[in-house]
Amino acid sequence: MLQLLARFTHTGRPGGGVNDTERTLVQHSSFLPPLNQAKGTTHLMHDKITAQTRAGHHKVGFDDVRWIMKHNRKGDLAASRFWLINTLPTHEQMYLIPGTVPCQMEEAWVNEVIGDLNRNLDDYILVIYGKNNVDDSVDRKFTQLTKLGFTQVFIYYGGMFEWCLLQDVYGNDLFPWEIATQGTQTSPPDMLHWAPAAKFVGHM
Predict the structure, then answer these.
(1) How far apart are CA 52 and CA 23, in angstroms?
(2) Which domain holds residue 62?
(3) Other CB atoms closer than 10 Å to residue 109's CB: what's the count?
(4) Which helix (H) or strand (E) holds 4?
(5) Residue-level pLDDT at 152
(6) Is 126 within the bounds of a domain?
(7) Is residue 85 a contact partner of residue 126, using CB atoms and an 8 Å limit?
């Protein structure tokens, strides 16, 4: 289970200075190493993620999304192992979490990867997100991708709604979004645009 803590901490700087007021988010990740983990541990991380996946633990939190966001290679689809995939409607592709595969490129990328016999689908780590924690489209996408042979597929159930709430509290530097070329939205919508629809209000 993921646990979120918000705290102020002393943060060492390369020059020896200390910032007493830097706000730091600490989340016990389900499988990913800290953002400052030394290089050379990718293989160990791969083994641990695979074990978690086979156990059915496919949920991840916002800190895992931030890790993927920082480690993918968005400009080179073929070379990247870490990808964010969204299930938002086509007309809502204007504002996305940075590093998200453009929806118009997703099908071609998937076909390229599964059609290349020299590639191992176990090497790809995919994180799916949608509008919010009750968005069923992420589960359908999870099923679709796993049936195609991808074994390391995870879901960020918080989706855009949680991401925007965190952005409102902690700022755009920690929880940014990027303006994509697709979509019809010209200005950022209110965060409630991504909120879950009420099931009881007005019906009981």
Answers:
(1) 30
(2) 36-194
(3) 16
(4) strand 4-8
(5) 92
(6) yes
(7) yes
